[in-house]
Every structure is written in structure tokens, then in C-alpha cells.
Amino acid sequence: VEKFVEPTRGVGMELLRLLCEGMGLRPDYFEGDLTGGDVIINVNHYPPCPAPGLTLGLPPHCDRNLITLLLQSTVPGLQVSYKGDWINVESVPNAFVVNFGHLLEIATNGVLKSIEHRAMTNAALARTSVATFIMPAADIPIGPAEELVGEGNPPRYRTVTFDEFMRVYKTVGARRESVEKAFKL
């Protein structure tokens, strides 16, 4: 597990550095406490389901963290919400799917959006995925980066600690609209 977690976290941190560069933030903006919490690994296994249209592997949700790296199997099942429709995400061997979480949306003042997604079952084949979540420390404030706020671009989200965020997230649910409504100014 360690041989997987350390390099995967490294990929996530490099992606965050590159995102910073693209948005005009200092490259180390997300280092330290903003990514200093636990690295959580979820291994999800979805057995074959004879009626996949009648059940979901995971219901629609946005991730609760900054960034998620998802290693999919070759069996399709991940879908993302796009303009009211669900779009299948192609499985690419030896590649990660990268999801932006709610906290990245808050930290970037909405420049980057969290991705609502779900997992579907397959009628004939089992599907397994491995999700790596990069989490902030529990008690640090997370709010829009000062560099992304200014005249003509006010803060769109209130500053919260990760603990407070998780209390609200667990209460209102993980759907995009619910979390956005809870934290938008």
C-alpha cells in the first residue's frame, strides 16, 4: 500500500502545483496544512448486477476533499454530470481520473469546480476502483485564496475549517447544489 500511496500523493501534489501556476497562485499554495491531513484510500468493489439500471454503485456526489486520483479497472462504470446529463468516463489503462473536490472549489473561489459523479454497476462484470483522497488538516481555515479575490471578484464562499465543512457535508449530503448552497456567500 505504501508503494502505491506515496507516489500517488506525489502525483496529486504535482497536479496541485501545476493548477496553482495556471491560476497565478504561488506554486506551494496547497502545501502544508491545506494538504497535510490524512491521505485516504478507498477501494470500491462493485459485483455484477443483473439489473444495473435499478441500482447505483455510488449515488451522485462531489468529493469532500481538494483533489482525488481515481484508478479505475477496465470495466466502465464512472459517470460525471455534465449539463444535466450523465456522461460515461472512459477507462484508460494505467491512468488516473482526477476529480476536483468541494474544498478545491472553495479555495479557488470557484475558478475550479467540484465534479459531481456517480458509479454504476455492470450486468456481467465486476468493477473495482481505487480512490486516493488528498485531505487538509482538520482545524485549519479553508477559504478563497486572497490572490483570487479582489475588486470585481468578491469571495464566493465563506471560510471554514475542514471539521466544520465535514459536519455540514454529512448533514446536507454530498450533492453539488446542497454543499454549494451551504458555503456560498
UniProtKB/TrEMBL annotation:
It comes from the Eukaryota. InterPro entries: IPNS-like_FE2OG_OXY, IPNS-like_sf, Oxoglu/Fe-dep_dioxygenase_dom, Plant_2OG-oxidoreductases. Pfam families: 2OG-FeII_Oxy. Keywords: Iron, Metal-binding. Transmembrane segments: none annotated. Residues 36-136 form the Fe2OG dioxygenase domain. GO terms for molecular function: metal ion binding. This is Fe2OG dioxygenase domain-containing protein. It comes from Aegilops tauschii subsp. strangulata (Goatgrass).
